[in-house]
Amino acid sequence: MSDWDPVVKEWLVDTGYCCAGGIANVSAEDGVVFAAAADDDDGWSKLYKDDHEEDTIGEDGNACGKVSINEASTIKAAVDDGSAPNGVWIGGQKYKVVRPEKGFEYNDCTFDITMCARSKGGAHLIKTPNGSIVIALYDEEKEQDKGNSRTSALAFAEYLHQSGY
After folding, report:
1. What is the CATH number of domain 5-162?
2. Which residues pair with 100 in a beta bridge?
3. What single DSSP character describes residue 12?
4. 3-state SS class at 65
5. Contacts of 89 (CB under 8 A, 6+ apart)
6. With 0-12 CB in 10 A as exposed, 13-18 as middle and 19+ as buried, what is 112?
7. Which residues, in sequence order, are CB contacts of 124 under 8 Å at separation 6+?
8. Which of 55, 8, 57 has its CA nearest to residue 33?
9. According to DSSP H, which parts of 24-138 are helical?
């Protein structure tokens, strides 16, 4: 458990708008998650899975073969490049990049935001100017939506930025 886990829980999960959340570091750790929390107290399984292989599907819908997935590198690619060719992988679950926004203004801060989606839920990846990445997951089956989860994630990103992270 990280010292940051309770902070993530307070800012993201306890709002009721996010089912899980975490913090990754893009500068020093290349997207590696270092804090995690979830509504079922199993944050690390929701936010992190060791490198694994997954089947890839071609444009024609047929399997193309296996690809090795490093979740940290997919998170980093999504926030840095606004795309992740094999999807963004968080906790063994695949998300599709649907809307990258560079230079998003929120209060007195500027963030790079990547919105990701999957069936009945999604994720917000928010990169602070200091190199932290807020990861906020929402689950529509728990009556959570992308708007409220995004607002919670932005508030947390602002807090991290103002605290030097």
Report:
1. 3.30.450.30
2. 114
3. I
4. strand
5. 49, 54, 69, 71, 74, 75, 95
6. buried
7. 113, 114, 115, 116, 134, 135, 136, 138, 146, 149, 150, 153
8. 8
9. 43-47, 71-81
42 SS3 class: coil
Q: Could you tell me the sign of the dihedral formed by the alpha carbons of 96, 102, 108, 109, in that order?
A: positive
128: its two tokens:
């602070």
**What's the predicted TM-score (pTM) here?**
0.93
Sign for the pseudo-dihedral over CA of 117, 152, 12, 78: positive
Both tokens of 152, joined, read 């919670």
Among 142, 145, 137, which residue's Cα sits nearest to residue 116? 137
- Quote the CA–CA distance of 108 and 124 in Å, as a whole number: 20
* Residue from 35, 2, 36, 20 nearest 95 by CA: 20
Report residue 109 CA to chain centroid gap: 19
In tens digits, what is the pLDDT along the chain, a chain of 165 residues? 679 999 999 999 999 999 999 999 887 567 789 999 999 988 999 999 999 999 877 667 787 889 999 999 999 999 999 999 899 999 999 999 999 999 999 999 999 999 999 999 999 999 999 999 999 999 999 999 999 999 999 999 999 999 999
